[in-house]
Specification:
The chain is α/β, with parallel strands linked by helices. The chain has helices at residues 15-26, 46-52, 69-80, 99-109, 137-144, 159-165, 177-185, 208-211, 213-267, 273-285, 296-304, 313-316, 319-328; strands at 4-10, 33-39, 59-63, 85-88, 94-95, 113-122, 130-131, 156-158, 190-201.
């Protein structure tokens, strides 16, 4: 069973770029991985011929019977993967040799992390420029609210987390399906960006991110708006849950004190119920309890509010507070 599944969708990729991308995966220092390549262009066999030229058992080539689009192809790759970790690889980018090894090592050491990525360096336009990303989970979470703070073609995902949360790529957000995925995971699993270059990113006029920049921006804004609305609704629900929880705790405390009052009154020979408990307290501490204050909860409230004001020294010394604190800490 491979530890890592490398997932590469391809679609009409120029042969030189495809070969560079494929060879960068085959030359990884990590050893235990499978390399799944899915061709989303059924009518064109060019990519199949390129992949067939590599005699490497780690490669598993598949072709869609019909065009699924990028989100559908990524989901199909995830379904076919057998590794614990899913490494995203785009068909025209170059992964540096230690990328998989370093990302897998981080996930091995940090069970709370579901997504690890790093930096990239530009290959074509603005060649050599490095794009950095924030390092820690809190920083990444805050930055995701403003834009994609994780380099998707350089990332590795913990498959178990995706399955646990039921998160997949969503066709509705193409070409920003990667950003939507991260926003679904934000706040539900850990993120980390290794502070080094892991990928050489090709930004040429024919690739998706360059051609569909306006669409990506519009999709990004829609994703952010929908996530903000979902978080607002979730906040309202949590407020309601907290209110109900407070009421339930109050009812439980009151019930515990009522039972305690009955038990204490009976055991002291003063009859059953809170009236018996009140009589016991009155005799022991020289304190009479008004008839309307014979519920143990009411006695506590009255004592706290200073309902008895005859200047009794026991009250001044906090005896009543000590008694009731012991009652509050009583566990049935």
């Amino acid at each position: 069973m491979p530890k890592i599944s490398v997932l590469m969708p391809v679609y009409k990729t120029p042969e030189p770029f495809l070969r560079e991308a494929v060879e960068s995966i085959l030359n990884q220092t990590a050893e235990n991985f499978e390399f799944l390549i899915l061709d989303d262009c059924p009518e064109d066999r060019a990519a199949e011929a390129v992949i067939a030229s590599y005699d490497d058992a780690r490669i598993k080539y598949f072709r869609n019977e019909r065009n699924l689009g990028i989100a559908g192809s990524r989901n199909r790759l995830m379904e076919m993967a057998t590794g614990d970790y899913l490494a995203v690889a785009d068909h025209d980018d170059v992964s540096l040799p230690q990328r998989l090894e370093k990302e897998a090592a981080y996930l091995d050491a940090h069970r709370e992390c579901g997504v690890v990525s790093g930096w990239y360096q530009l290959l074509c336009r603005k060649r050599g420029r490095i794009r950095r990303r924030p390092e820690h989970n809190a920083e990444i979470g805050a930055a995701l609210a403003e834009g994609c703070a994780v380099i998707h073609p350089a990332c590795m995902l913990r498959r178990q987390e995706l399955e646990r949360l039921g998160v997949r790529y969503e066709e509705a957000y193409t070409p920003a399906e990667d950003y939507a995925l991260f926003m679904r995971l934000r706040g539900r699993t850990g993120f980390y960006n290794l502070q080094e270059v892991l990928l050489l990113y090709r930004n040429f006029p024919e690739n998706t991110s360059h051609r569909r920049r306006r669409e990506m921006h519009a999709a990004d804004e829609r994703i952010k708006a929908e996530i903000r609305e979902a978080e607002r609704r979730r906040g309202q629900v949590m407020d309601e849950v907290r209110a109900v929880e407070t009421e339930l705790k109050a009812l439980i405390r009151r019930g515990q004190r009522e039972i305690l009052a009955r038990r204490r009154g009976q055991s002291a020979g003063y009859g059953s119920g809170t009236a018996g408990w009140a009589a016991f307290l009155a005799e022991r501490y020289g304190r009479s309890v008004p008839p309307d204050k014979q519920c143990c909860w009411d006695i506590w409230d009255a004592e706290q509010a200073g309902a008895w004001d005859d200047g009794d020294e026991a009250e001044k010394n906090g005896e009543w507070s000590k008694i009731w604190k012991r009652m509050l800490n009583f566990r049935l």
